[in-house]
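Lab meeting prep.
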Amino acid sequence: MAERREWTVTGMDCAVCTAKVVRAVERLPGVSDVKVALMAERLSLNVEDGGAAAVEDTVRKLGYGIAPKGQEAPRKKAFVMPGEPTNAEVGDHAGHDHGPAGNHSGHGHSHDDPADRGKPWHRTGKGRLVILTGALLGAAWGVELLTSAELGYWAFLLACLIGVAPVAKRAFEALRMGQPFTIESLMTIAAIGALFIGAAEEAALVVFLFAVGEVLEGVATGKAREGIRALANLVPKTALLEVDGQTRTVPADALAIGQIVLVRPGDRIPADGTIKEGTSGIDESPVTGESVPLAKTAGDAVFAGSINTEAALRIRVTREPSDNTIARIIRLVEEAEEARAPTERFIDRFSRWYMPAVVVVAALVIVVPPLAMDADWGTWVYRGLALLLIGCPCALVISVPAAIASALSSGARRGLLMKGGAVIEAAAKTTHVAFDKTGTLTRGKPVVTDLVPASGVSEADLMAVAAGVETGSSHPLAQAILIRAAGSALPSTNARALPGKGAEAVVEGAMAWVTSPRHAAELEGIDGFALRRAAALEEEGKTVVAVFRARQPLGLIALRDEPREDAADAVRQLKAMGVSSVMLTGDNARTAAAIAGGLGLDHRAEMMPEDKLSVIRELGPQVMMIGDGINDAPALKQAGVGVAMGSGTDVALETADAAILRDRVTDAPALIRLARATMGNIRQNVALALGLKAVFLVTSVLGITGLWIAILADTGATVLVTLNALRLLGYNPAKERK
């Protein structure tokens, strides 16, 4: 019997690390549905009875720490200095590479050890290796300067051997696991080969530069994840729980749904909830990026991590601490890596044969000229060794995930959530945006403006029947009717929605309907005068519903839902970006035309859910659909990118491809702008990685550049690509570009 199990895995520092774990574990008997979340350091899978031990053993052999969920996993050393004992719990691996398990071509550098997080670089394992190799190199230069070249050679030889020892140990462990093509193995071969041809000084310098590059890579890649880690610190650790009029301090993660917490001015809100008592300004910028505090009062929803700016509030907890908005955002971003961009998948396939191909070329460079042209062996061995050092495609492999991680982090801080690289790539290609009307282009809070009761029917009776039909509905129009009815709803049963038409229910023992005038006319629930009155109200941009019983008109209710203040500006921005816009609504044509005309976009009216789906298919794969995530689910699913509006709703965070948390229409062009900037950054990274490799492949073969330049080309390219990706952390997608 298979069960779902979860572990904490430490030491994974890049996408290739997760791939290595997945490929190794999924080959085990009785294991299925393997998922690894890099940022959460989480491994989850289905495993049959007795198979958990094999999973843990396999992960440890790969060089990672592992422990069941809820326990602290052992931390391994990224570098083990000569003579330093290893952690027995994670095997005797001195580190890990970016090579794969099984037949996946290995490549890559070891990244920063999680145990080193927050430490100055010189106190990390990598930093200590840099200091050691630097000191040894300096000492060797001193020996050569003060004594002779011969003694200097032996000093450089000793410096090289001591510095390369931990790297060689990692290479050996990787080789034992069937992963010969790692940067550690190529580095070891190049350094030892250089010693054999008498280039001891250059070999020692290469070892030092390799260590420096590792530190720089660790610093750069660590920063790419800090934004997501910082989100977890937004929620306070403690809360003031109120019980029987008394307050006491309790851990925030111990709060339960229904409890009341007191939040004083200046405090962060400890849990998602609704305000029970009080009115204050709420600064939601930590959660949604909204810079202006919002005035909220009793009944309004608030998010964990937001800041209460003005007055004390009593808040009822509505979500478990593990399921608050920030926790769900963190989970979303952590798991977004599973939706890999097509570009990333292509580069992964390319990198599998790139490194072995370079090794073959290096071998040919070493043996062909001396054998075929009687060239000098020392010269061509040196050039072949230089080729080996630039054979690792780490810069290329990291070019896409580094940019995507930065974009996801940058977007999350601004209330723009995208579920992975595939969504980013699709959003960047957007040529059409289809908007739902209610709750997207409009505020989603319509109000009743006109009551037109039929002859012999009072306004109170009209509202009582309408409210009875709408009781229990969450639709914005229904909520407006219920608010206006103010508790006068008649008792009802068997209520159900009529998608695209309205609703019906049994009210006081007889059927009653609240529908569009068009549908009411089909059921003989509206007369000619009411139809003309409805048309006049619709010309004013109002939504009209007819209330009736079987062949008995009761009257009309007109409602108006005002467009959001930024809707027109959002349409203008999209047009400036070359993206066309269209409004899809189930509302009548006159109301739709009045609203769309004021916003400056096309519209399609009186649309059923299946009609919206047809329009999305008609617009093609490069369309982005923006809706509320519930009524528009089919269209959102069909669109190239489905975007849900809504401040942290379950649907917004869990079902759509992307979500706009701030309910700003201008965030739609901002999301596209961020996606386009990310793809531009990826193209720059790929060009930089491949360009540097190509240049130094040629110069190494021609003998223009040597070993130390080759190692700079490898680690330097990785650092440059990562730093370029980090620029996205500071990118502001809300700012229009010329």
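Slide two material, second protein:
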Amino acid sequence: MERRGYITSVNGPVVRGRGMRNFAMREMVRVGEGGFIGEVIRMDDDEAVIQVYEDTQGVRLGEPVTGTGESLSVSLGPGLIGQIFDGIARPLRTLLDREGLYLGRGLSIPQVDPALSWDFAPQARVGDLAFPGMLLGVIQETPLFEHRVMVPPGIEGTFSWIAKEGMCRADAVVARVKSPLGWERDIPLLQRWAVRTPRPVRSRLLPREPLVTGQRVIDGLFPLAKGGVACIPGGFGTGKTVTQHQLAKWCEAKVVVYIGCGERGNEMTDVLEEFPRLEDPRSGRPLMERTILIANTSNMPVAAREASIYTGITMAEYFRDMGYDVALMADSTSRWAEALREISGRLEEIPAEEGFPAYLPTRLAEFYERAGSVETMGGEKGSISIIGAVSPPGGDFTEPVTRHTKRFIRCFWALDKRLANARHFPAIGWLESYSEYAEDVEEWFAVHVDSRWGACREEARRLLAEEEKIQQVIRLVGEDVLPDDQKLIAFTAFLLKNGYLQQSAFGTDSYYPPENGFALLDLILHFHEKASELVQRGVPLSLFRDLEEVVQLTHLREVPLEKIGNFDEIRNKLDRQLEKVGAERVATSGGIPSWH
């Protein structure tokens, strides 16, 4: 029996209705004669408050509100990879073909075209025990991605029928399970899941393996673990979006989910145009063959922006449950929080700091807690790593969204406006940034990169911190009055900043394997060690700081890796030149070091 109420109030995306006693909290509804998509967010007797995910212009009082019987949900299955969706998971390419450049309202189309078909290969047999997360079959969805069809949560029993090998439509049933009580239940290829409900896992695991990104400042100083959560805060123009693009392109994740949450339309256009042209560095295939894009720009309905991150994280959980490593980029959670603030204001809720709702920390926690490295229901190991951009007004990291986000993340990549103005990118400040995953992943780096990775990381951070103190003196009295040992620290920090931490987002320097990044860092630190010995022997820094072998340390990052050759050869050549300078200094001083 159809359940219907009627509209009594319209306030932007917030609609109130009566006659809705039989509706459920968080139920999806159709609002007005246009059938606009909405969600029940508050109930009081027979009155309900609905947030509408579309423009409510033209909606009139008294128009009907119709229940759908399900929560805001997405269809999970093959056909998601390579697609572009809006905030409530409607396929934008299909909408473009159907509606043209300007989207209509009240549109209801399937996420995946039911007529699509794939070659299904069953991995289970009739009579096998079925349990949640069990591998049922595989589909080679793209050349880069094998889709694993699994038994959905909540289904247990014995397989009474399984589809044969061959082509299978998106709307097909692939298996049937008979429970111990005798009832049978079909398993469709596409499974519906409520986006606000986390998918179950068998257990959570400690993060021990880094998410390799190919960005030296991240892999070398502030690593992110697989299953970890990171925040990229920064003011306008500091490079948040470009940094997330780099991570989406190069991080070692099987699937990338990119959520453009309330960003400017031109930035999202760049993403939509660039990603289909990008080449996967490990396979040479288009990167879109393992990517999902969710586009919800700032001019789209504000309520859909609030839903977009739940749509994205639910898709990410689905691929995690297959045993894959998933990277989710949310750009930006500040725009998402602004959507919460606007809806909260229209609900006339008592505001907290800066007008944000009092439940902002809770919502942030709910989102970030869905990341993690887990043992799936099927016994596989999978992970979701969340990297959320934050856009604090004026670059103020004490504002509520940034401050509350820091409570729930363990990796903080603070973008520095001064570095961005100096064209130093990525503009990740080495003093404010931190990673609590460094100790967790140190063992992995010791095994796969070098046993000295942790020591070199700490030494580099120490030199950069010391250089900041020295720079305060330089700004007051100039560099010439400093002793050579302090000048050397400032010079080594210059080499670290320009030769290691700086990295172009384009060309040969856009990706640097962690082992090569460590070799470059170790080379700069090796120079500092040898140079310190010369300074202690009384050799002026001015005699060797301009050597060709020293100057090239700031340019090695620009040289293609295949042309660098062996870093040990560069180290040996540098040692010979430094020893030569030291020997010449002793000879010109009559064999007596100047410090005597």
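Talking points for slide two:
The first helix runs from residue 92 to 99.
The mean pLDDT is 90.
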